[in-house]
Fold this protein.
Amino acid sequence: MARRFFVAMVVMASTALAGPAWEKKVQDFRQQTQEQRKKLGLKNDTKDPTPELAFAVTPGESTNGMVVLCPGQSVDVKLKTNLPAGSLFVATTDDVTISNEKFGSGTWAATLTAKPTILPRPFEIQGVQAGSGRAAYLGSFLLGCKHTLLVDVEGARLTAKLDFTSGRRSIAVPGTWTKDSKALGTANYTISLNTNGLSVSQLPTEADGQAQMKAMMASMESPERKALEGRLQKATAKMGPCGKVPQDKMAACYNAVQPELNAINAEMKKLNDAADLANAPKFGCSELSLNFTANAALEGDATRCAAKKSNDRVSVKGSITTP
């Protein structure tokens, strides 16, 4: 029974640690290449040219020089390359399959097909050299089209419509916050894609900047802060003579003033925290960092949220649907 449990745990661990299928395909290809070279007695790869990949036909301006793949869509691509026959070509995502490959005379042509259900992200075409195993990368590919982003933060929800058909990895869109089906407010955000997730940053308005500056100045000029600064100056002055007393009495001299300094610093921190909270957004969060999970969901954290200090982090979860 114990042995069966151990075997099951090993299988589960191996499954959890397994990487993307495309990475394994590249690893297997390189291993096979090395074994073949060893059998042939080939050891020096310096004569192999540096691998290169480029578009034979450059994507148009409408997609900003990117090849954009929408869910379930297929697109034909043609690349120029100096890779030799027998080289391997892969897409650096398991959400894209390659078919109808034709390779020869310095060109590689194929059909790329996106799965019907995908998370948007940039990806590359990687060409692995037959012989040395060295690789060339072409990164002008974007998986994604029109989507809806939903993010839940402590009972509130952000909804934003995303459109990556322009080929841009970073887009500006309005986002609406709701809670219990009631609208809290709308703000503009920059949504930026990367291979592992996306970031959401609120675009500050001129009114926001003026309000924050006004709140900061009010805090800096408040009677409470000026009174604390006066107390701090007097307490610091009490420590001046401590540098002139005998060495064995110096620590006691400084320590006598320390409780007063600690009390002043604690009150100053309360003022700073109050000023920080006053600058918090009226609704939602200003900064969100979201990672793609194995089950095609989003997880991460948010900062600069309503009723939170600027360094408070809040756990968030979300999803992306099509459209």
